[in-house]
Write a structure and sequence with these properties.
Blueprint (H helix, E strand, L loop, with lengths): L1 H16 L8 E2 L16 E12 L7 E4 L3 E6 L6 E3 L5 E5 L3 E6 L5 E5 L3 E9 L2 E3 L11 E4 L4 E13 L1
Parallel strand pairs: 2-12
Antiparallel strand pairs: 1-3, 2-3, 2-8, 4-7, 4-9, 5-6, 6-10, 9-10, 9-11
Length: 163
């Protein structure tokens, strides 16, 4: 009897000693929270990077994850100034000047100070640039920075999602 009690106690102790799992940064019920409380800049751009995966039609059966990515900020870039990979939102080269780079944290948050002007945002997916937002003039993920203001964006990576 004591042998079984000892075995039970060891198993119970080991199961309780297991480190708790980190909180998931993926959400299946609605969108992840925004990270606006982390903003510390007075001029530039801040945002969240979210990776969408799964089937979102007719109702959400996919997941949205806050992800860490390298963000590339170029001069305002049009479709005629990139080397597209087929008819996809992936690019092998961006033929405008790179202004700066930054990296989002594990919660997808990023911020960067920028001079007033217009810029285009891209992330790196494997070995290709990715950006899937366009304006009516053909600019890729345009972001306008005004003097003394911080522009908020949400960078959705959606190539693994269906709608």
């Amino acid at each position: 009897m004591i042998k079984y009690f000892t075995l039970f106690f060891i198993i119970l102790t080991l199961s309780c000693a297991k480190e708790s799992e980190p909180l998931s940064s993926c959400y299946t019920d609605g969108n992840p929270p925004r990270n606006n409380e982390k903003v510390t800049i007075n001029q530039g751009v801040w945002g969240d990077v979210w990776f969408w995966e799964g089937n979102f039609m007719p109702m959400s059966r996919g997941k949205i994850c806050q992800v860490q990515r390298m963000i590339y900020i170029f001069e305002l870039t049009k479709m005629s100034e990139v080397e597209a990979i087929g008819y996809t939102p992936f690019y092998s080269a961006i033929n405008t000047d790179l202004v700066t780079t930054t990296e989002s944290d594990t919660n997808g948050f990023f911020q960067v100070e920028l001079e007033p002007g217009s810029y285009s945002l891209f992330v790196m997916e494997d070995t290709s640039y990715y950006s899937n937002l366009f304006d009516s003039g053909g600019a890729i993920f345009p972001v306008k920075i005004e003097s003394g203001k911080v522009t908020e964006v949400r960078f959705d990576i959606t190539y693994e999602a269906s709608y």
